[in-house]
Write a structure and sequence with these properties.
With 290 residues, the protein is α/β, with parallel strands linked by helices. The chain is 44% helix and 11% strand. It has an 8-stranded parallel β-sheet with strand order 1-8-7-6-5-4-3-2.
Amino acid sequence: MTSLEPQHAPSQPAKADAFRQMHAGGAVPLVLVNVWDAASARLVEKAGARAIATSSSAISWSLGYPDGSHVPPGLALDALRRITAATRLPVTADIEAGYAGTDGAFDDGLLRQTVTAVLEAGAVGVNIEDSGGMRLTDADEQARRISVVRSIAAESGVNLFINARTDTYLSGQFGDSAFKETLERAERCLAAGADGIFVPGVTDLHILHELSRRISAPLNALAGVGSASVGELHDAGVRRVSIGGNAAKAAYATVSRVAAEILGDGNWSELAGSPSHSDMDALFSPEGEG
């Protein structure tokens, strides 16, 4: 695939600085429509996005694997390279738990390989999570891993934005103590070098407000059908909103509807409104940019 990155495009360090500034607050939060391949990245960019985020679940599904660190790291990183080559925007990569093994056999060398490959691909941010096993990774150990990521980024000269994801709510492991556990984990992650905190599984605006008030870094919320509006999330203190694998699910739902219709009654109506062949080709043609 031909890269769409012109020679005069911002450098990777400049993109990293711009991406970091997008978390600083303002009239609206940073809204990320997560992508999984070059075409979805180009479509999201064309729609007016300020930055691109990958979805590990969507990439895994597109490559034939379930979510949850089952995809071979090489395949996931190849997908990231295609995505960064397809867009001029800053890209942040979902690296799950670092593609470095489980808690019982975690390999710092593999984590270093992952982060180095992410940086070499041109990305300027990562999501790294604490749910790489049956139970959440110990908070101190997760902080140590984040410190490793920070040190690798420092060596590269790219001010990588580390978004520390904690599944304190999503896992259901902490019950009534989830709020306290979240704050404690956030504090450890930030002290280790994280730049933002991602707490998926929280939709209650009051909880989000209290988290944003007590965490001294940009708060990332996961949104989808039934979530509060972007404006409401902003008012609750959320500074970054992402949708995870939801865009991919919507795309695959369209495939399912098209197939069911065509294989059922032979009707083609579900194809209405699709981009033309030339429209799709133009996504990757320098002559078609504008």
